Amino acid sequence: xxxxxxxxxxxxxxxxxxxxxxxxxxxxxxxxxxxxxxxxxxxxxxxxxxxxxxxxxxxxxxxxxxxxxxxxxxxxxxxxxxxxxxxxxxxxxxxxxxxxxxxxxxxxxxxxxxxxxxxxxxxxxxxxxxxxxxxxxxxxxxxxxxxxxxxxxxxxxxxxxxxxxxxxxxxxxxxxxxxxxxxxxxxxxxxxxxxxxxxxxxxxxxxxxxxxxxxxxxxxxxxxxxxxxxxxxxxxxxxxxxxxxxxxxxxxxxxxxxxxxxxx
Length: 264
Description:
This protein is an all-alpha fold. It is 71% helix and 0% strand.
């Protein structure tokens, strides 16, 4: 119970930071050399970086980046993967076999390496990160959707809808996918955590958010060079990243238990 409340609190705090960051008067890119490596103070509760920029302001901007990237990636991945998996499983035959082979090809490569390769080819930028991670992320949703539809498409209510002349689109969306909402919610929760880590990793490698814009990954990269001088440059974004990912995974576990996916 305590871990569930902790997870909800951290996730809500992260979302609030991301959504309200644009409404606050922040100065994440203002250089103030006299404040270089300054310790936390009232004007910046997390201290300053190597250029005298307030870490609190940059942390809030990084939260916004991680939120919007994860939202777009999960939305695109879920939309594409769920529909492809559902239609292929319902149609069966050649369509299903082709999808299975495509999924096998994608699973033959580690997802993060494929995302790094795509981001390197496309070039740095938030839009390219979203595209690269969406290309990788749809596979998990497609597999889950296919498995759910295969287990449900022989049910009596589906056969009755088919006899009554319901269209394939209506059967899939109204009679199959609606019964699979719970597994998709759990998968999306874990997917958000994975996307946040992937976005931070790409930004750490210089393939994501570009200077002077802030990202948790790029903040960790910049601070790693000054660990002995200003450890707060790494601790602030590192702890934020770890807490949000941990909270999302705990929330996913709680949702899985609450929604009882294995018996749905």
